Amino acid sequence: MNTVSIRNLSHRYGKVRALDDVSLDIPNGAAVGLIGPDGVGKSTLLSLMAGVRIIQTGSVSVLGGDMAQKRVRRELSHRIAYMPQGLGKNLYPTLTVRENIDFHARLFGLSAAERKTRIARLLEATGLAPFPNRAAGKLSGGMKQKLSLCCALVHSPDLLILDEPTTGVDPLSRRQFWKLVDDLQHEHRGMTVIVATAYIDEAEQFPHLLAMDDGRLLANAPTREVMAQHGGKTLEETYIRLLPEEKRQGAGGLEITPFVPDPDSPPAIEAHGLTKRFGSFTAVDHVSFTIPKGEIFGFLGSNGCGKSTTMKMLTGLLDATEGRAELLGQPVDVGGMAVKMRVGYMSQAFSLYEELSVRQNLMLHTKLYRMGGKSAEAVQNALQQFDLADVADTAPAALPLGIRQRLQLAAACLHSPEVLILDEPTSGVDPAARDMFWRTLLQLSRRDRITIFVSTHFMNEVERCDRISLMHQGRVLAVGTPAELVARSGRPNMEEAFIHYLEEDAKTAGVAV
């Protein structure tokens, strides 16, 4: 019997088609990984399965009930657990760990005795038992997601739906989270688990795979079967092969030539004891590093660890509480423009004008950079260099995420900066578009000697950097080349190395990660 059966499901948001004639079956007790870049319809599909969105076209049957009927959705809510995208989205930050779980248990009508038993069991299973009275808002990202899972599972559901539950969470917490889900599924035999993930390597661990692009299913089969059929050594490679031909162009084949620093050039970026406090909260805690001219320097860490705050201090968007930052040999001045004009900055969120065309956005940036008579030539060069000529007159809102990210990079490079600071520039982008983006970064570094400071939470991107800094809870844990950090940790790969440094840091601090 199937837990989920979907036929000819389509869904629109205005003129945008999020789902396009999707049909699928998910059997009872299955563990399913759902992959695809941002904006391809994953969250829409999961929310329709969970019954929190109204069906427009097609049919959705869950646990034998027609989800088009309000009565059925209400009755099945006691058998479905849905954890939406975002850290702690289903939590109340001012309530304690125990109070959050108890609140959700009351929503499902559990008796006092049932609540007491299930809360105790879930706290023990998730490792949250030592923190029952800690406010949810004071938890780390990994602990928030464990608490969110407790709240979702308190009523012992038959279907568990998780929408990117580990995005932005450190690798140790990710590993603990997935072990917890696996243990709970084995304990509650027959429970079906459907998980969307931004990390394709995570989906490789699930027995069954759903792969999506542009609102359509690319694959719906056992994961190993899909990989064998398409000849991919990894699931990421397999996903690229599933994409249409036009989207596969530029994927793979990245040749990374060794970086050779110029001993006579002064450092491009220096941070000395850089610290930022917001009231009593220390977001960045005495961070120090030096980046030579032309190097690609990676910043790896979970959401909320201080990466973006550090970058904003380096660009002069935020004043440091303590310490100092220097760019190109000059102190960073929040109010000054001289150094800022030599830096290109790409924020984590899309920061261009949706209603202007690609060309108009670039022209506007030439005015911001006061480029005068060089504007038209600079825009034309950018359109060619970043492969945007064919979409020059298109509004960004109509473009795929990968092209929007290239547009942001083009805008940051218009004034020929000496330093590029990029805050998670490929988050949500498909693997093929990510490869194209990195090919451009390598050209800017090796050919133009532009210094690139880039933050990420993708392990395969870290290995493309010349050196990296591992960051956790506002502090730098280690700095070095990827090979050096792996060798120093005694672990086989970068993800295992990061987990090693997190565990060592936790031992030193005497706290849970």
Automatic annotation (TrEMBL):
Residues 4-239, 269-498 form the ABC transporter domain. It holds the Pfam family ABC_tran. InterPro entries: AAA+_ATPase, ABC_transporter-like_ATP-bd, ABC_transporter-like_CS, P-loop_NTPase. Coiled coil: none annotated. The keyword Membrane applies. CDD domains: ABC_DR_subfamily_A. PROSITE patterns: ABC_TRANSPORTER_1, ABC_TRANSPORTER_2. One of its GO terms (molecular function) is ATP hydrolysis activity. It comes from the Bacteria. The keyword Metal-binding does not apply. Keywords: ATP-binding, Cell membrane, Membrane, Nucleotide-binding. This is ABC transporter, ATP-binding protein. The lineage of its organism: Bacteria, Pseudomonadati, Pseudomonadota, Betaproteobacteria, Neisseriales.
